[in-house]
Design goal:
Layout: H1 3-17, H2 21-27, H3 32-46, E1 52-55, E2 60-65, E3 67-72, H4 73-83
Antiparallel strand pairs: 1-2, 2-3
Helix pairs in contact: 1-3
């Protein structure tokens, strides 16, 4: 199996495991910096956008950017306004 294919499998397995990247890497004896490097290379190669999920039922926006981030739309608006 080629290297990129193996890393894709590792990255997908981590997502499916519901473990943090740190915990998954520690449990599977994977260097965390290598995991992040390979994940970044694969995302750049695929030119993939990271998922953003908007839950209209409870006014929350979830981001999955290496770590799960969840905040209200109002707080996100305040954050973005302060970045500009």
């Amino acid at each position: 199996m080629r290297g990129k294919e193996k890393w894709r499998e590792v990255i997908e397995a981590q997502k499916q495991s519901d473990l943090t990247i740190k915990k998954y890497c520690n449990d599977n004896h994977i260097c965390i910096s290598s995991f992040y490097k390979q994940k970044t290379l694969i995302l750049e190669e695929e030119n993939t956008f990271l998922p953003v999920i908007i839950d209209k039922s409870n006014d929350v926006i979830d981001f999955d950017i290496d770590h799960h981030i969840s905040c209200s739309k109002q707080n996100l608006k305040i954050l973005l306004e302060n970045l500009l």
